[in-house]
Amino acid sequence: MESEMYYLRKLMDKAGLIAAIEEYIRYYNTGRYQIKLSSMTPMEYHEAYAA
Length: 51
What we know:
Elements: H1 4-7, H2 14-30, H3 42-50
């Protein structure tokens, strides 16, 4: 996990930390387009080639 994810935020409680981690994981899997994955997100690539 990128350290910038939590160093650049003010997290006041455990629920806020959990929400931030879930948001980061969602972005990491569904929001990052990768050239090495044929310009797909990791989840798009997995779904395309897992079937």
